[in-house]
Structures are given as C-alpha cells and as structure tokens.
C-alpha cells in the first residue's frame, strides 16, 4: 500500500513552465526556504511549452543573447535545481480550496503517490495558456483527420520527430503558426499559404520575414478558411477574402488542395482552476484581475505568465513571474490582506484593450511599477497618453503600435503619492494628426 | 518580399525587404551597383541601413532543427547551428541533419556534427536527452 | 451459416443485437466503419422524446412511448448516462396555441403522462433564460436526454459479451437470395445467413432494393448543430423545443447529459449519403433560431459544431418488419427522430419478429448487466482515491478539460469491442470532447492507443480508414 502524503508548503506554484520556474526562483530569492516551495508540473519535465519551441530568439532581454526555447528553459531549471526547490512532476492539480484561516488546500494527484493534499500559505497560478481550437472558430466543413492546432503539430515534429502532413495551409499568423510554417518547410513539407483573418498579422515582424519571406510562403491578410474538404483526411480547404466585418466576400473563394490545416488563431489563458476557486477574470485577457503585486481578488493567490495574459516574449514572462514569486514571499512572511484597502484603478481609454495590473495599492507598489498593455488596432505615429484622474501626466510618441506586440510603461511611485486624490489612471492611444 | 527587380542591363539591382531590427518594420529598397556599392533607402535609422546591406551582401541565419537520437528517452534532440550560416546553405544543413544520428546520452551544448555542410559551423544540442533505461 | 446477420452497428442495429444476444442463435453484426456508432447514431440531439409528436396509432407512436419507458431501466442495467429532465415545446404567438393544444391531445392519446400547458409566469420559474417572445409551452415531464454514444456502445458491448460477433471494417457490397436465406458479399469475404436485419441507416434503401421489388427511398436529411461550453450547460435545464413557425421547423436548445448545451438541428434534404459537412449558413440558422427560444447564444462559447444525417423515408413512418417479397429479410429503415428514443423498443420488437420466423430458446447464462467506464470527472474524492489505489493509471490525467485519466482510456481500449481509434476513445471516455477539443490530449491518446494495441503511432487513426494523424 502506498502512503498518501500530507504536505505543507509556504508557496505552491501551479505549473513548471517559464512562469512557474521564475516565480519559484523569485520567492526563494526573497527569503522563502527552498523546501517550503513546491512546483507542481503535469508533464514529466520542467520547462513547459519551451521544450517544443526549439527555434531561437529567446532571452535577448534577460540574458543578452539569443537562445532556443529548451536552452532558455535550462537556465531557469538550473537555477531552481541549484536552489533545491522541490518539484512534483507528472502531477496534476485537481482543485484548490480556501480554508477559513486563509490557507489554501491544493489537491493533486499522480501515479506514484495517488491523490493527496498540499496545504499552502500562498498559491501562484502559472498554468500558461492553450490554443483556440477549430470548433471555437466555427469553421464549416467536414471533420477529418489532419486539422491540428499549430502547437500540436509542433509537438509532433519537435518532440516526437514525426510529421503531421505533407502539404499544409495555415490559418492564423500568430507566432507559432509562422514558426511552424518554417519548421514544416525545413522538414520537407510544402506550406502553401498562411491566411490571416485580420488586416494585420498577429505575429512578430521578424517571424514574418524569417519564417515566410525566406521560404517564399505567401501570407494573405484579410483571408480566412470558409470550408474544409475531405471525409477521412483533409483533402483541401477553401480560402476566401473577408470584408471589414470579417465576413467572407462571395466570389473570392479559392480551393487549395492540402492534407493538413494548421490553426494558429490565438491563445486562451487556462483558467479552469482559477475560476473554480473563485478568482475573478478580466474578460479582455481571460486571465485573472490582478493588483500591483500580481495578486488576484483572493488574498495570497498570485498569477503570472500566460495564464495572466498572453505574452509574446518569454523574457517578460520571466520578469513578471519573478515579481509574482517575490510578492508571494512577502505575503507568506506576514503580508497583509489588502481587501478593502484604498486603491487606484488602472483603466483602458481609447485604443487600449487591457492593462496588467488593473489595480494599484500605492502603499505596496514598487518604486517603479511596470504596466503592461496591448492596443486593439494597428496605430502609426501613435500617441500614448497617461492621465491621473482627468489630468494628462504623460505623453509618449510611438512610431508603430500593433496588437501583436505587448507594450509597457513605467510609473514612479512618488508621482502617484504626490498626486492628491488619485482615483484612477487611464491609458489611451490615438493616431497623431499628420 | 525579396523579388529582385532587374532594370535594363541588369544594373543596378534593386531588392525590397522588410527591416526586422525593430517592430516598426521599415520597407527598405536596397540598390546594388555594378561597382559593388550598396545603397539603402526607406530606412528610418542607421540599423536599417546596416540590416539592408547585410541581408543583400551576406544573408545568414541560425538554423534550429532536430536530430535523431539512438537509445534516448526521446526519439529526437533539438539542435542548432552554433553560429549563423549562409542563407544559401540552409538546405544542405537540413540534408546533413537528416542523415545524422546522435547517441544518448546527449548533454546540452554537445557538438553533434562538426563543420555542417562545409560552413565551418558546428551543430550543437540545445537540450539534454537521457539514455533510455533498458529494463 | 449464421442464423441472423445485422447490417449496421448504429443504435438500432446494436439494440436488435443486444435483444437477440439473449437467444441461442448464431448472430453477427457487420459494420463498414472501424467502430460502432459511426453514422447517424453519433450525430443527433441525444433526446429521449416523451411521445406527443407521432400520430396516434402509428408504429412510431407506440415505439416512442415504449422506448421512453424502457430507456430508464436500460440505463441502469447497462450503465449509460440518462436523465429525465423534462421538455418544453415553446409557443411564440397566440395563433400557435391551437397547435400546442393539438400536441397535448395527441400526447394524451398516445399515453404520455403528465403533459400540460404552462403559461409565461410559470415558465419564467421553470426556465429563467427563455426569451421574451415565448408566451406559453407544452410541458412534458417524461422527456429526457441520453448520451447517444453511451447508449449505442453499451448495447454493443453487452451484445458482444453475450456472444454476438461484431465484424468491423466490413462493408456489405452485395446481397443475394439463396435457398436457406441470404449470401452477403462483403469487403471481408462472404457471409451466409438465414435472416438479415437491415439496420443500415441512410443506406437501408440500397440493401432493401437489392432483394425487394417494393422499392424504398431514403433521403439523407442533414441536421447541423452547435455544441456550447460547459459554462453554458446550465443555461436551460429542460430540453426546449419550438413549435414550427413561418420561419421553419423548430430548433431545440438542450442541456446534454454531460453538462454542455446543444443547439440544433437544421433540416435539409441532401443527395450525398456521406454529406456530414457543416455549412456557414446552417450554423448561422442554428444560432439565429436557437436565440428565438433563449435570447442570447454567445458564439464565443461554441466548442464545436457538427452535422448528422437522419434517414428520412418518404412514407414518414418507420419501416420495420419483414419485406413483403423477401422472406427473412427484415428492414429497420427510415429510423429518423425519435429513433434514438425508440431504439430499446425497436430491439424488443424486432427480436419478436425473428422469434416468429426462427424460434429459439433463451440462454440461461445471459448477462443482462454491464458496467460502464468509471468516470473520474464525476467521482468524489474518496471514490477517486479508491480507484487510484487500485490502479495508479487513474491518477494520470490525459484530457484535462474533461478530467479523463489513462486508467479510463486503457479500460476503453481493453473492454469488449474496445476502442481502436482516437474517436473511439473520445466517444467512450470523453477525452478530447472538452473546450480544447483534443489539442492537448490527442498526441497522448495516440501514444496510449499505439502502446496498448502494439502498433506504431503512425498507424493510429482518427476514425479508421485513411484518417491517419501522421504522414511520417
């Protein structure tokens, strides 16, 4: 008979990807004993999705050099191992329950230890995100084999060493889709087209150049897949142009024969656990609403990385997660329940889709608070305006702002402290008159 | 977006490309003259000029891919060229990788293939792969 | 020489097989797909109709009522999900009240219990999310919902355990009348049998017409559906139908037994018996008409859409019985709505017909009960711990959206008539049916299938045939 463990920890971190790893390191650096931290990872190894992102371009901000995904992960895994932070691999978190005294009961299970509970002072949510599937896109047609999310195809090619198809059409120009266009091509497949519903790409410019242009793969903006053909395996797809309202334009349909359709149509933070435990989500990000400490509406529950909002650079995930780890450490070392304390709301004005954080308790903010945000459209010669209440306090000109690139500004603590009666900070973007 | 537009006589050669040195993505027009000089227009900073020249004269890329592993816990190991190789050598590099096989265990940073496709650049592992337990 | 061969392993064929498995006869089911439940039975509304729709005195009416009654006890014997959640037929205009009364009277005549008309105020309590356009409804407390895969697979497994042979990937190409019965030429060789049960769904006319001069004509009637996320599952608690209006035949909005919300179907007669593709206009119609009933259906909450084909026969009634000019050839044809509801009763009825043609004794060792696959998702903490203690594979979560573990998937593969395809695993365990639609678990399911079946992952298919996942 196996003994069921009954564990206690200061901080339980859900997810051992880039966010979970950096959060663990952050908590440890802030003084939490390594063996009082526990990373729970459902896969058999740490590193999360980075393990299949074998392309380079990671780490330019953090390490000042260009690394591949596995190399970037190895740096953080090395740190966590050196610190001696325990990890439960092959382990899934079933649920998280709140105790009356504010402690959290994390129920987990795995093959070797069965199902058991870990009692924690604080929990850091770092579950990452998942890809939007075909069903959610409501693409009509048959339902044959050969339709994959770009990430699933990436898993097959880079982890299993297998090919999901020979001739592919890719819907969506998100970064994973672009990267997979190149990867499939290098492995001998023919990528016939990347179609993007929006009039702009959701991916990084460098990926468009190095993954598509380098290989002569056409990118059609304002196009979508309107039909899928093939009863057993995909035989082809019909692509059509869309109008301003993203509705297909009749008469523009074009049939493209292929055996594979890859979907790279957006990522959704994976917040089932969060919702289940009562964490409030922001509809714009599908991630938790957090304050300056990256703390959710439940005291002692923090969130970071792609479960909080989808990032485009892992470097920012690591930075954010390290802060979440440090803040969780402060919380378990006698931090306060901030519920009901006076706070400043960070609001989205015109053009800004969301901000993280969206609440600031001035007393707890760092000397310099990073506000990350995304805009809702492509802006050329954009002007970013920051208002304290109704007063404009900052104006910045930007050559280009696009939904595909996360933006950030830094707010100094003393400026917030000095502004009397500060209730809300508003970010807005408009195009400069030229 | 790299179609070369030939003017009468072949010179000067004009190439259009997108600068990737920052998110702005300037559309550059690179002009190659018969005397070997290169002019760049459309850029809004000096990095754009530098990028346009490099992409025209000596375009290089780091190649990332996988290599088969014998007796590994995983069937393939991710690899990369240790530095950039000429863009024109990518296909040869992939061909060499297809034929090669590493033996587990592989350590991150191990050189798995020396001087790939005659580029003088080595292929290194970007992840450690353990040996499969044979029990 | 077989005593009985059933063509088609859909819900009707499997229901007949399960009934016949109680008798001492040599019985087989031939199915062209690589799994049971691959045709009409896998893509329908999953509704157990109360029985007010069919014209009194028809076979449909009798079988519907009987099927509705049998379904509950069968769900306990064979352990598949069934709920008697009650149904409502919505009326949107005063002019429709007459039709509502008509349904009420018809239902009473058919013997449906508990039917009554409910007015707006009571409806607001019964179903708070109904649209303002609803003025009254017919309430049928005996209406229910069932898992169509769960039902079909349970029937098939139980028939198999009791000795019925299932020949999958076996397509019947030709049927020839011979002296002792029939010769069936198939993709897997020749079968001889005394009695044929033609339960071939949209292809039933093809087989019937091979041996009978009285021609049948089955039209595939396409129905498109949208399935919504579980966060929408509580949007309605009853199955909500509509009275037909000038906008066309009604569309239903219903919870499923697993807590999703299902909206559909459209009704379009098509020529292609394989035409299970969805269309942009069809899916639009589903949402538009569905919103007549419940106000707002957020398109962002759709997790998948699908289409199924009903086998519509021109005479509008089920064609069940021995063909007039072909002794021993029994049609189970034109089984459109409420065919799923009727299945248990059809099984019983057809077994009776065969007993008259080819009398046989009942088996003494017939096993009438079957245990389904344990569902970790619905189990309590203690139950889960117990399962994991017995088999640690139940602690290894493969599909996180629906909480399906390796233990359940291994059970699905190794039980009688086990899954051999990814769709087969999905329909038995729900792995891949959640909101990520198998993006995360499909490679893992492929790996487990390959390991358990002793094959390479490149040989594993989505649904048999040429539906492989990998090309290298």
Task: Briefly say what this structure is.
Chain B has 135 residues and is of the alpha+beta class. Chain B is built from two helices and eleven strands.
Q: What is the alpha-carbon Rg of chain C in Å?
A: 22 Å
Distance N terminus to C terminus of chain A?
A: 76 Å
| SSE class of chain C | alpha+beta
| CATH class descriptor of the largest domain in chain A | Alpha Beta
Q: Indicate the proportion of strand residues of chain A.
A: 35-45%
Strand content of chain C: 15-25%
Average pLDDT reading of chain A: 94
Low-confidence stretches of chain A: none
Estimate the mean pLDDT confidence of chain C.
96
CATH topology of the largest domain in chain C: FAD/NAD(P)-binding domain
The CATH superfamily of the largest domain in chain C appears as FAD/NAD(P)-binding domain
- How many individual β-strands of chain C? 22
Helix content of chain C: 25-40%
Count of separate DSSP helical elements of chain C: 12
Helix content of chain A: 10-25%
Overall 3D form of chain A: globular
Biggest pleated-sheet summary of chain A: 7 strands, mixed
| Number of DSSP E strands of chain A | 29
How would you describe this protein?
The complex is a heterotrimer of chains A (about 425), B (about 140) and C (about 475). By secondary structure, chain A is α/β, with parallel strands linked by helices. Chain A has helices at about 20-30, 70-85, 135, 150-160, 175-185, 205-210, 270-275, 315-330, 415-420; strands at about 5-15, 35-40, 55-60, 65-70, 85-90, 90-100, 105-110, 115-125, 130, 145-150, 165-170, 190-195, 220, 225-230, 235-240, 255, 260-265, 265-270, 280, 285-290, 300-305, 345-350, 350-355, 360, 370-375, 380-390, 390-400, 405-410, 425-430. In chain A, strands 1, 2, 5, 6, 7, 8 and 21 form a 7-stranded mixed beta sheet that branches. Chain A has a 5-stranded parallel beta sheet with strand order 10-17-11-12-13. A 5-stranded mixed beta sheet of chain A has the order 24-22-29-26-27, with no helix packed on it. In chain A, β14 and β15 form a beta hairpin. In chain A, α1 (about 20-30) runs parallel beside α2 (about 70-85), α1 crosses α8 and α5 packs parallel to α6 (about 205-210). The longest helix of chain A has 19 residues, at about 315-330. By secondary structure, chain B is α+β, with helices and mostly antiparallel strands. Chain B has 2 domains: about 5-60, no CATH class; about 65-125, CPE0013-like (CPE0013-like fold, Roll), CATH 3.10.530.10. Chain C is an alpha+beta fold. Helices cover about 30% and strands about 25% of the residues of chain C. Chain C has 12 helices and 22 strands. Chain C has helices at about 10-20, 60-80, 95-110, 120-125, 150-160, 205-210, 280-295, 340-355, 380-390, 405-415, 420-430, 440-455; strands at about 1-5, 25-30, 45-50, 80-85, 85-90, 115-120, 135-140, 145, 165, 170-180, 180-185, 190-200, 220-230, 240, 250-255, 260-265, 270, 300-315, 320, 330-335, 395-400, 405. In chain C, strands 1, 2, 9, 10, 11, 12, 19 and 20 form an 8-stranded mixed beta sheet that branches. Chain C is globular and about 60 Å long. The model of chain C has no long low-confidence stretch (mean pLDDT about 95). Chains in contact: A-B, A-C. Chains A and C meet through β7, α3, α4 and β14 of A and α7, β18 and α9 of C.
């Amino acid at each position: 008979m196996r003994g069921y463990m009954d564990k206690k920890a200061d901080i339980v971190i859900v997810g051992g990807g880039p966010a979970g790893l950096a959060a663990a390191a952050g908590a440890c650096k802030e003084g939490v004993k390594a063996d009082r931290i526990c990373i729970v990872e459902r896969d058999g190894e740490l590193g999360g999705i980075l393990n299949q992102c074998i392309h380079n371009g990671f780490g330019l901000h953090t390490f000042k050099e260009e690394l591949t995904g596995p190399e970037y992960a190895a740096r953080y895994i090395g740190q966590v191992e050196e610190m001696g932070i325990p990890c439960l691999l092959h382990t899934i978190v079933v649920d998280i329950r709140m105790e009356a005294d504010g402690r959290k009961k994390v129920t987990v299970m795995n093959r070797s230890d069965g199902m058991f509970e870990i009692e924690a002072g604080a929990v850091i949510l770092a579950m990452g995100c998942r890809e939007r599937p075909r069903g959610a896109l409501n693409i009509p047609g048959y339902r044959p084999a050969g339709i994959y999310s770009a990430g699933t195809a990436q898993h097959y090619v880079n982890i299993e060493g297998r090919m999901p198809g020979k001739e592919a059409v890719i819907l969506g120009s998100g970064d994973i889709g672009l990267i997979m266009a190149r990867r499939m091509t290098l492995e001998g497949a023919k990528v016939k087209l990347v179609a993007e519903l929006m009039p702009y790409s959701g991916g990084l410019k460098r990926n468009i150049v190095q993954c598509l242009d380098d290989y002569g793969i056409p990118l059609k903006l304002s196009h979508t897949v309107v039909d899928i053909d093939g009863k057993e395996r995909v035989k082809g797809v019909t692509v059509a142009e869309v109008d301003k309202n993203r509705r297909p334009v009749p008469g523009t349909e074009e049939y493209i024969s292929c055996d594979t359709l890859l979907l790279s149509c957006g990522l959704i933070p994976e917040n089932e656990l969060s919702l289940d435990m009562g964490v409030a989500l922001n509809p714009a990000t599908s991630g938790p609403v957090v304050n300056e400490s990256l703390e959710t509406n439940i005291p002692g529950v923090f969130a970071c990385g792609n479960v909080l909002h989808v990032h485009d650079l892992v470097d920012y995930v690591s930075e954010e997660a390290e802060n979440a780890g440090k803040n969780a450490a402060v919380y378990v070392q006698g931090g306060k329940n901030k519920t009901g304390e006076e706070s400043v709301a960070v609001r989205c004005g015109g053009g800004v889709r969301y901000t993280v954080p969206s609440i600031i308790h001035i007393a707890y903010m760092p000397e310099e608070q990073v506000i990350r945000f995304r805009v809702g459209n492509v802006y050329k010669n954009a002007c970013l305006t920051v208002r304290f209440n109704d007063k404009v306090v900052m104006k910045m000109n930007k050559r280009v702002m696009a939904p595909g690139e996360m933006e950030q500004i830094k707010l100094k603590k003393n400026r917030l402290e000095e502004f009397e009666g500060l209730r809300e900070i508003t970010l807005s973007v408009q195009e400069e008159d030229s | 977006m790299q179609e070369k537009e030939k003017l009468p006589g072949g010179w000067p050669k004009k190439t259009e490309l997108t600068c990737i040195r920052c998110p702005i993505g300037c559309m550059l027009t690179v002009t190659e003259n018969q005397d070997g000089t290169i002019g760049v227009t459309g850029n809004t900073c000096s990095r754009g000029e530098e990028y346009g020249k490099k992409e025209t004269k000596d375009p290089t890329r780091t190649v990332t891919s996988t290599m088969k592993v014998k007796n590994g816990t995983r069937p393939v190991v991710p690899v990369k060229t240790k530095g950039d190789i000429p863009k024109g050598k990518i296909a040869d590099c992939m061909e060499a990788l297809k034929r090669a096989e590493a033996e587990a265990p592989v350590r991150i940073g191990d050189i798995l293939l020396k001087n790939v496709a005659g580029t003088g650049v080595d292929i290194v592992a970007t992840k450690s792969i353990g040996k499969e337990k044979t029990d | 020489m077989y005593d009985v061969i059933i063509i088609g392993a859909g819900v009707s064929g499997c229901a007949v097989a399960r009934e016949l498995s109680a008798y001492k006869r040599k019985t087989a089911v031939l199915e062209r797909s690589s799994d049971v439940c691959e045709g009409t039975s896998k893509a329908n509304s999953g509704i157990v109709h109360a029985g007010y729709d069919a014209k009194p005195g028809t076979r449909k009416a009798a079988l519907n009522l009987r099927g509705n009654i049998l379904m509950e006890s069968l769900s306990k014997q064979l352990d598949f999900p069934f709920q008697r959640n009650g149904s409502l037929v919505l009326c949107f205009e005063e002019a429709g009240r007459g039709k509502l009364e008509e349904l009420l009277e018809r239902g009473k005549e058919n013997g449906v219990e508990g039917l009554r008309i409910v007015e707006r105020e009571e409806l607001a309590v019964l179903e708070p999310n109904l649209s303002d356009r609803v003025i009254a409804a017919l309430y049928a407390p005996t209406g229910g919902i069932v898992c169509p895969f769960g039902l079909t697979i349970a029937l098939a497994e139980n028939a198999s355990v009791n000795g019925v042979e299932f020949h999958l990937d076996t397509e019947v190409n030709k049927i020839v009348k011979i002296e002792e019965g029939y010769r069936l030429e198939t993709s897997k060789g020749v079968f001889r049998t005394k009695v044929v049960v033609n339960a071939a769904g949209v292809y039933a006319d093809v087989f019937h017409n091979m041996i009978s001069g009285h021609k049948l004509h089955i039209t595939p009637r396409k129905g498109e559906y949208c399935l919504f996320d579980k966060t929408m599952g509580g949007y309605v608690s009853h199955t909500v139908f509509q009275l037909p209006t000038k906008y066309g035949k009604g569309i239903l909005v219903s919870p499923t037994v697993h807590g999703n919300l299902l909206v559909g179907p459209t009704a379009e007669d098509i020529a292609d018996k394989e035409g299970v593709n969805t269309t942009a206009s069809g899916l639009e119609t589903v949402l538009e008409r569905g919103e007549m009933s419940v106000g707002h259906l957020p398109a962002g909450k759709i997790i998948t859409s699908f289409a199924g084909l009903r086998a519509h026969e021109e005479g509008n009634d089920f064609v069940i019985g021995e063909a007039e000019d072909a002794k021993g050839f029994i049609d189970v044809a034109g089984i459109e709505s409420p065919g799923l509801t009727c299945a248990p009763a059809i099984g019983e009825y057809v077994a009776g017909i065969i007993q008259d043609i080819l009398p046989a004794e009942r088996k003494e060792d017939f096993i009438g009960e079957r245990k389904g696959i344990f569902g970790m998702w619905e189990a309590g903490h203690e139950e889960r711990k117990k399962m994991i203690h017995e088999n640690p594979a139940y602690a290894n979560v493969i599909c996180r959206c629906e909480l399906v573990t390796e233990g359940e998937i291994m059970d699905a593969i190794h039980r009688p008539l086990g899954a051999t395809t990814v769709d087969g695993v999905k329909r038995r365990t729900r792995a891949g049916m959640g909101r990520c639609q198998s993006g995360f678990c499909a490679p893992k399911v492929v790996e487990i299938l390959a390991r358990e079946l002793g094959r390479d992952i490149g040989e594993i298919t989505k649904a048999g045939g040429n539906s492989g996942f990998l090309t290298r």
